[in-house]
Amino acid sequence: MAFEQNRLRGQGFGGADVGAIGAAARNRVLRNTYWLLALSMIPTVLGAYIGVQTGFSLFAGNPFVGLIVFLGVAFGFFWAIERNKNSGIGVALLLAFTFFMGLMLSRLVGAVLGYSNGANLIMTAFGGTATIFAVMATVASVSKRDFTGMGRWLFMGFLVIFVAAIANIWLQMPALMLTVSTLAVLIFSAFILVDVQRIIRGGETNYVTATLSIYLSVYNIFSNLLVLLGVFGGED
Fold first, then answer.
1. What are the tens digits of pLDDT across the range 159-206?
2. Which residues of 103-131 are buried (b: 16+ CB within 10 A; e: fewer)?
3. Within 10 Å of residue 147's Cβ, how many Cβ atoms?
4. Percent helix, strand, coil in the chain (nearest 5)?
5. Long-range CB contacts (< 8 A, 24+ apart) of 201-206?
6. Are 230 and 111 in contact (CB under 8 A)?
7. Are 191 and 154 in contact (CB under 8 A)?
8. Is there a contact between 15 and 6 (Cβ–Cβ < 8 Å)?
């Protein structure tokens, strides 16, 4: 995609023609990203369903071992997807990764379904996530402000909540869990803003990479909204 975009920039004689071609390429990346993001929801839901039905839990035994296995599998997928991002293999790997993430989500989904209003909480979290995504994507599309500079600060914030979340596996502090979940919703919402605008402005030219970034934000928004809804709205 990057090669194609550079080749197109070399064609045409007027600045308007080059700009139009560049805009068309960016719109194509954005359109393909949204399409693949929507498609990735299918294996995620399937993975979560299978996980709930089978009682899958990577952290059921030793939490430390479960964490190491999860990180190993996740970063293995990241490496493989990036390496094959320009081919259909990259798309297949991305969909396989979303299935794995669905499995990882199943323990939380199963716990929420244990509430009498669990199904409603899940739909509320889904609706909230969709609303956040729509708002952030719209702002990124229409705003003239450059949000891409926020990326570094957002990454630092992510590292802080990531370390706190890992620590809380052993600390089991409800207040820390709620703080992490609240901050995660805010940080990953802002990540969507940054990632979508990066595509629109031509900073990201590969739709597989773009989809992976946005998927992770959507996934984390949904899961943390579900945690908050379960704590404050769960009915026995």
1. 999 999 999 988 889 999 999 999 999 999 999 999 999 999 988 999
2. bbbbbbbbebbebebbeebbeebeebbee
3. 19
4. 85, 0, 15
5. 201/26, 201/146, 201/148, 202/5, 202/22, 202/25, 202/26, 203/148, 204/29, 205/1, 205/2, 205/5, 205/25, 205/29, 206/1, 206/2, 206/29, 206/85, 206/86
6. yes
7. yes
8. no
